[in-house]
Write a structure and sequence with these properties.
mainly beta; 10 strands; about 50% strand; elongated
Length: about 130
């Protein structure tokens, strides 16, 4: 009989929002193939890119975490923008929790947070 560990069988979403009045170039430094294919090369002003990732774990075994991490940079024509990524934070000896983080590039305002669930990663650039 198989046992399920709460949080392991899950789905995640990635939402990147351009809340600025400028076009933002999207550069993917690292991401699984489904994310690479789903993100557009440019986000128009006030546009949203959305990726649903079924069966991706938020609380995951340490040795499996790297495969699902993302690293995305969005910038305007002047190089101002945001560095969005997910990182693996230690949870226990065997598990890590995947969380979103954001870093500003230049004078941009950036935010990374979870949405309605811990598996909804929301990245805001303005």
């Amino acid at each position: 009989m198989a046992m399920a560990v709460p949080g392991l069988a899950s789905a995640t979403t990635i939402r990147v929002e351009n809340r600025s009045n400028a076009n933002l170039k999207v550069s993917v430094k690292h991401a699984p193939g489904d994310v690479l294919q789903a993100l557009p090369p440019t986000l128009s002003p006030h546009a949203i890119a959305f990726v649903r990732r079924p069966n991706v774990k938020v609380l995951t075994p340490t040795e499996e975490a790297k495969a699902d991490l993302i690293d995305i940079i969005v910038t305007d024509r002047n190089g101002r923008g945001c560095h969005f990524r997910t990182i693996a934070e230690p949870h226990s000896d065997a598990l890590v929790l995947i969380v979103p983080v954001a870093t500003a590039i230049g004078s941009a305002h950036c935010e990374a947070r979870t949405g309605r669930t811990i598996g909804d990663f929301v990245f805001l650039a303005s």
